[in-house]
Amino acid sequence: MNRKWNKLLCTTLVSVLLLENIQVYANVVKMRLLYDEKMHNYEAENITITINGTVLPPEDMPPIVLYDRTLVPARAVFEALGAEVAWNELSQEVYVRKQDDIIVLKADQNTATKNGTAFTMDVPAKVVNERTMIPVRAVSEALGCTVAWDENTRVVAIDEIIEPQKPDEIMDNKQNDNENSDSENDDNTDNENNDNENDDNEHDDNKITEVDKKEYASGGTGNIPKKNIGVTHIDIPQNKNDKQIFSITASDEIAKFQEIESDNDEIVIDIYYAQKEILTDDIEVETSDIVNDIVSLQYDEHDITITRIIFKLKAQYQYDIELNDDENGIVVYFGKKENDNTNNNTNTNNNTNNNNTNTSNNNTNTNITTNTNQTNNLKNVYYESARKAIALSKMELFAADNVISIDDYINKKYQMILPGDYSNIYGSGTMALHTDELVSVTVSQEEGKTAFTFEQNGINAFTVTEDANYYYINVKNPKEVYDKIVVIDAGHGGSDPGTSGNGLKEKDMTIAIVQKLYQKLQNTTKVKTYVTRIGDTYPANIERATMANDIGDVFISVHMNSANPNPTPNGTEVLFITHETDVTGKLTSKDVATILLKNVVNALGTNNRGLKYDTSEQKNLIVLNKTVVPAVIVETLFLSNPGDALKISNELYQEKAAQAIYDSIIEIADNYNWR
Questions:
Q1: Residue 82 maps to which CATH number?
Q2: CB of 419 within 8 A of CB of 399?
Q3: Which range of residues forms the domain containing residue 431?
Q4: Residues 402-459: tens digit of each pLDDT
Q5: Are 21 and 90 in a shared domain?
Q6: What is the DSSP string of 307-329?
Q7: Judging by DSSP bridges, how do beta strands 111-114 and 101-106 pair with one another?
Q8: With a threshold of 0.70, does the pTM exceed it?
Q9: Residue 122 lies in a domain
């Protein structure tokens, strides 16, 4: 320990002495430089840096010229440009982040990366006098800035590229100019007044636009929730001939919502104290001549989580926005709104499942709502316990392949929609079942189709078969239906934030990656995927392990690491324990861990910390010691390390992580026996 402190003290003293050994004579810098483990005498004319025309104040380490290129102190220059700068001592890497761009430079290497794409620099970054010096032109231009060098004045001018004014901003400026012109010319001659009349007419046109623009909607219950609600889904019309009613549904009452001023071809609604739990970020609307697509996103403002919904319009149209009767949804009406609220709400709810009907024949994790309080008028519907199936009398034929499935397994609901209205055959109502698998089944009619909604005790898979007399809706364990099933777990969640560091929470980073991964896995038939959570909720760890054992073949839990308060440790590692069920010729936890580690490290460019397994630390983890299927924990990187945190805070790197895990799952599916 004493030697460590002595080394630190010596290094600090050398750094101080070197930085104090700077002499500036008649604009000439003379100093001793320590780099490449050698001392160098440096003498050159002083260099001035300007940022957007403002001179950067002198630092203890000035810009220097090495190998005919200007190197500047990374933190001083690029923080002045509004970028974040982090240094990883262990990997000798400097990270520069500006908005959505991340530049990664490694000391003494000419190759750097921008958002994961490599580019070559004339000179490498250098650690000089214990300061990180980076090539000013290469990095500035990579961040979208212009760089100019004036040899005579020895000035490096770095300027951000200014985006051109938007047309609406130009119109606003023009309107203001007209207003000023009108005010100044009140007392002009008759001829001048005639000119001003033309100006006034133009100004009046702008006023008409202002008057016609609707007042922006706002509302909510005003009851601020103890924890964020979830914005779960958006219902759209079934077809273009239907009333153009769109419904945004939340998990609980909405405390506050507000329409935000936007372009004429957009409607923007912010929902406060609300977590985005909609699986699809961009919903393409093919059943409307008014709305082209609906975009959803989430952001934080003053510690308030806000979900933003953006309706992108094909054309301007009259509309109204209001809170629904249950105060847990926002309804957007296009055209003249009906006065009958009951009809509107009925239409909106009906659209929930019909929209999903059009989207997919096997839609997953869409919230299902149904009215279980209706009069019980079921007929020709039976439960056969021996088959574990709902039997439907075959009084009218339909194609079993055309049955639509909606799996809301997170909420333990499953819905099947028959391709027609069979109310005269099967009636409507609820049948209580209370079996190990099912609580009840409800039959209802929705926009000309008959829906069977199952309330479940757990997660099941459903198939439709038939014989001469009956159609059967069979209730099965998913392993009876799918050959390969992966259960994906976003670590922590809800009241359990996990670890944190550099302004990031583990639960937020894990769900961001898992949501992206889940979307990718919906598009492959090689594996069936279930997730333990899709929003900011907290399933107990034993529930996650039980879910993996009951329905899964492989369990992958996504986590973030931390070594707080030590910022140095960084990189990726994968944890597992050896199970008694691990046998030769069958997929094991080590197989899964090895492939995941390889792909995640390659995708993120992180330090490979290896596999961690079979120690007391891993054996004490419930999701590893209570699972009997191959199970791993991917510790993606360290939130406590500034460089790692800078990476994973960028959505591009979240996407890279999701893609790496997806690629690993496909590789495992292609090359291993899962059972």
A1: 3.30.457.10
A2: yes
A3: 377-476
A4: 888 999 999 999 999 998 899 999 999 999 988 999 999 999 988 889 999 999 999 9
A5: yes
A6: EEEEEEESS---EEEEE-TTSSE
A7: antiparallel
A8: no
A9: yes
